[in-house]
User: Which sequence fits this backbone?
């Protein structure tokens, strides 16, 4: 492995800044005086508790829902279409989802307008604390909608490694109902394979600001939002609190991870144990009906959130309970176009650069370990590390280093920080895709006298095209969604859809946030659509190439 | 060597602070010409709050003008809170970056200014060698000289002056509620319809200070630094808030995060009130179709909290000439008149219109003024000493974050 430069370069790009960032964060954060002040802050205990609570509950529920969705799809014969359903919600950045849900669910939101006043009798929006509620339920909902889709994708990828169809068939033949068969037989096998994605979901749930800004509780906010406020405070004493706080965040996250790992083992064992009871649960029509309804309601909520963003971005004064905003939609749109245009240009430029650099790093490395499953797994695990550390912690540390190196605010720094987050996804998609290409194609090309390079371009590349296009779209979406890395590495100089949406959502200006939120939601969806159509156009005259 | 520079700068800061009334000398034209020449081709990173579309557009307009007229590239770095830029300057200073800093011009006032000025991290004094600074209403508007009890000392240039204004939906609020007692009675009679931005958000803290200034008997006490008598002095404020909070929006368990957030809530009908430092904000918003036309406005009869906002240049800016040219342009009668125009921004000017030529004055005379802009307040109330601000924010958090 060490004699393969592409792999070493790939790992260095990710591992060096991450570990340096964590070390720098620890170095500047281990300050007893600042730590004492953190702990003396009003509401800090509650704040940490609500971070952990929302992360844990959202992870648990998302995992359950993802298993149910895959089980239903597998038994209902629409497994192939499941990715298509999950994609729009997966591609939608967390920040856009948060803003959309806030606009949908608030007392003056689209949902209540739709039934007011004819069904509810409300002429004024009711004074309900349902968005940004102290129990963090709206935040948890936002996390569930996003993370369920992420886990569905992870489960679907893991499914390729498990003879699930045969296992299901056997279990069904023994009289088990579809759900029970899935949970007792296939789920425990998958559970072991999705440990890393699951941990990433938990870490993100605890440490995110993207959903916690628009949806999280206000008094006090979640811990990560509290740190975000401290970090931007002019008082150096309060800045120091932010650094000390990130160490605390790291500690809280690691402890929770350890508990969750134990819980995961226990869960897997429990699922197996249910098989020993011998109960078949063959008539699970009702349970499946409930699961299906929950999934459909959740999915529609996510889609409606996009619609809510669209409505709000075009609305001026929009007094409750009018369902549609009045006034001149088009002029309102044209109004914000110049602003949105330059932001879109920066966002797209950065995302395309990230995706291209990522592909340049990942494709050669994937080529080098196409026959070595173990190396693929090790590289994958290392690239995954940045998703297992709270973003705040290593980004704070990274910023300290960047300022020292005079690199903050440079495009290189921003691009690099984006790459760190795009690489795990690129690797996860491309390394297995490369490995599954039948090596005999290459042998044939070689016997015909083609050089390795020519073989790659004429034989391997077309076979990889579909995965590469998808990987491009995925890396593009990851880059579009990144907020904290753009803010910290970019010294605030790069105005992307994410930074603009977060800045306006952070000051609670939902109208402005919705304009950028719309951009945030539309860009990834467009690129995924483009990736799919390009692929079918490119190879419409060939057979046997995956489309 | 660095330490020497810092000491020198600190001495200059101190010297400048001693001179309370700055010398408004006519700027040396030749010297200014060299500044303009040096500025050519420079890129100025202007760190300014970016939460308001109209303001962002205004800054975009200024950037275009500067590009064509002076070949200066003004880049608006939009921040959620200018404190972000302040902490970045401090981080750069801690990292020993005395040159080539990431911020060239800041939109700033109050605590943020005080914090940079105390640390000696501002370039200057530069304001009085800026040609258009002679047009500022230094005498008539004391908030241009003293920013929250700290002398501006030529280190920050007044850019606009504002008075805290309360806006309401006149369909729901029918009588004038221009004193705290009447307002409190209305709040209790209309639960869930009033709120204020959450301190330490700029406008939230301003609302606390405004209430304090009209509720406290001995307002002179507030001009001196806070002391052991904090609890006693601020008692009337807390009893007002304690009575109001159960009847606020979301029972006082959630607050709008900023002024625009509150305006948003007014626009969708969740609230009947909003606050702003910009007396013509509602008219501008109505003109742009962001608010309905039934909005009214008022100042407290006892006086409105007033303050100015400023432009400052960090000590480690690599484009000081460009920043000064940009600031001078932003202070020009044309730029100030456009800024005061509620169709664009609607922020009152800091210029003394008597000092302007007839043509320049016409720019201000023709400005439109709508029904939702209140008359100039009876009295301008100066900000309390800055030490009160921090204590108020702290006390608010301790009291209302459970």
Assistant:
């Amino acid at each position: 492995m060490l004699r393969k430069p592409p792999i070493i370069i790939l790992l260095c790009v990710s591992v060096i800044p991450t570990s340096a960032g964590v070390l720098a964060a620890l170095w500047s954060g281990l300050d007893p005086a600042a730590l004492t002040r953190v702990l003396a802050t009003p509401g800090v205990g509650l704040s940490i508790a609500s971070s952990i609570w929302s992360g844990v509950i959202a992870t648990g529920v998302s995992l359950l829902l993802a298993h149910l969705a895959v089980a239903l799809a597998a038994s209902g014969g629409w497994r192939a279409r499941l990715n298509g359903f999950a994609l729009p919600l997966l591609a939608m950045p967390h920040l856009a989802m948060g803003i959309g849900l806030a606009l949908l669910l608030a007392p003056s939101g689209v949902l209540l307008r739709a039934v007011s006043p004819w069904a509810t009798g409300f002429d004024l929006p009711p004074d309900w604390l349902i968005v940004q509620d102290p129990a963090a339920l709206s935040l948890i909902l936002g996390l569930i909608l996003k993370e369920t889709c992420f886990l569905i994708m992870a489960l679907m990828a893991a499914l390729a490694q498990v003879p699930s169809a045969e296992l299901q068939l056997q279990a069904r033949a023994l009289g088990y109902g579809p759900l029970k068969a899935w949970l007792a037989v296939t789920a425990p096998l998958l559970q072991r394979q999705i440990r890393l994605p699951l941990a990433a979901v938990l870490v993100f749930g605890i440490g995110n600001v993207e959903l916690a800004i628009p949806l999280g509780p206000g008094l006090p906010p979640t811990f990560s939002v509290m740190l975000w406020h401290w970090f931007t405070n002019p008082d150096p004493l309060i800045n120091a609190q932010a650094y000390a706080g990130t160490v605390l965040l790291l500690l809280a996250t690691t402890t929770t991870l350890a508990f969750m790992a134990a819980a995961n083992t226990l869960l897997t064992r429990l699922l197996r144990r249910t098989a020993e009871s011998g109960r078949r649960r063959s008539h699970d029509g009702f349970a499946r009906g409930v699961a299906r309804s929950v999934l459909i309601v959740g999915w529609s909520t996510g889609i409606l959130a996009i619609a809510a963003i669209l409505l709000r971005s075009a609305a001026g004064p929009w007094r409750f309970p009018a369902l549609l905003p009045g006034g001149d939609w088009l002029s309102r749109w044209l109004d914000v176009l110049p602003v949105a245009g330059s932001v879109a240009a920066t966002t797209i430029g950065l995302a395309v650069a990230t995706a291209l650099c990522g592909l340049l790093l990942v494709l050669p490395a994937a080529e080098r370990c196409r026959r070595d499953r173990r190396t693929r797994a090790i590289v994958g695990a290392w690239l995954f590390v940045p998703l297992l550390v709270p973003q705040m912690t290593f980004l704070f540390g990274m910023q300290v280093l960047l300022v020292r190196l005079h690199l903050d605010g440079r495009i290189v720094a921003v691009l690099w920080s984006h790459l760190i987050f795009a690489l795990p996804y690129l690797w996860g998609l491309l390394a297995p895709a490369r490995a599954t290409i039948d090596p005999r194609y290459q042998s044939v090309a070689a016997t015909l006298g083609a050089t390795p390079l020519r073989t790659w371009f004429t034989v391997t590349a077309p076979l990889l095209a579909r995965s590469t296009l998808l990987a491009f779209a995925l890396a593009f979406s990851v880059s579009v969604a990144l907020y904290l890395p753009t803010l910290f590495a970019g010294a605030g100089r790069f105005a992307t859809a994410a930074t603009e949406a977060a800045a306006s959502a952070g000051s609670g200006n939902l109208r402005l946030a919705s304009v950028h939120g719309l951009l945030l939601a539309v860009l990834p969806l467009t690129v995924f659509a483009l990736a799919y159509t390009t692929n079918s156009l490119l190879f419409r005259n060939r057979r046997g190439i995956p489309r | 060597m660095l330490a020497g520079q810092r000491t020198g700068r600190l001495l200059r800061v101190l010297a400048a602070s001693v001179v309370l009334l700055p010398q408004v000398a006519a700027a040396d034209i030749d010297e200014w010409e060299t500044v303009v020449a040096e500025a050519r081709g420079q890129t100025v990173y202007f760190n300014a709050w970016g939460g308001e579309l109209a303001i962002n557009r205004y800054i975009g307009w200024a950037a275009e003008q500067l590009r064509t007229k002076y070949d200066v590239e003004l880049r608006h770095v939009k921040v959620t809170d200018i404190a972000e830029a302040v902490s970045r300057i401090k981080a750069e200073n801690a990292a020993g970056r005395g040159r080539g800093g990431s911020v060239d011009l800041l939109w700033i006032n109050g605590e943020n200014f005080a914090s940079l000025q105390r640390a000696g991290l501002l370039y200057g004094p530069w304001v009085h060698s800026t040609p258009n600074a002679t047009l500022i209403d230094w005498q008539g508007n004391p908030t241009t000289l003293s920013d929250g009890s700290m002398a501006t000392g030529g280190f920050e240039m007044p850019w606009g002056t504002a008075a805290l204004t309360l806006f309401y939906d006149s369909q729901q609020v029918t009588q004038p509620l221009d004193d705290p007692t009447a307002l409190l009675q209305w709040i209790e009679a209309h639960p869930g319809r009033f709120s204020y931005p959450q301190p330490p958000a700029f406008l939230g803290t301003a609302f606390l200070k405004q209430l304090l200034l009209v509720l406290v008997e001995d307002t002179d006490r507030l001009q001196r630094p806070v002391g052991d008598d904090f609890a006693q002095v601020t008692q009337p404020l807390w009893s007002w808030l304690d009575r109001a909070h159960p009847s606020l929006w979301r029972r006082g368990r959630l607050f709008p995060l900023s002024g625009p957030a509150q305006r948003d809530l007014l626009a969708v009908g969740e609230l009947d009130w909003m606050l702003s430092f910009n007396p013509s904000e509602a008219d501008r918003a109505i003109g742009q179709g962001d608010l309905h036309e039934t909005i009214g406005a008022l100042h407290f009869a006892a006086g409105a909290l007033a303050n100015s906002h400023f432009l400052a240049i960090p000590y480690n800016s690599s484009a000081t000439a460009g920043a000064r040219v940009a600031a001078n342009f932003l202070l020009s009668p044309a730029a100030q008149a456009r800024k005061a125009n509620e169709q664009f921004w609607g922020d009152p000017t800091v210029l003394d219109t008597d000092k302007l030529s007839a043509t320049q004055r016409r720019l201000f005379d023709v400005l439109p003024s709508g029904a939702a802009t209140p008359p100039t307040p009876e009295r301008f109330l100066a900000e309390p000493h800055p030490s009160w601000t921090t204590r108020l924010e702290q006390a608010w958090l301790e009291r209302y974050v459970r």
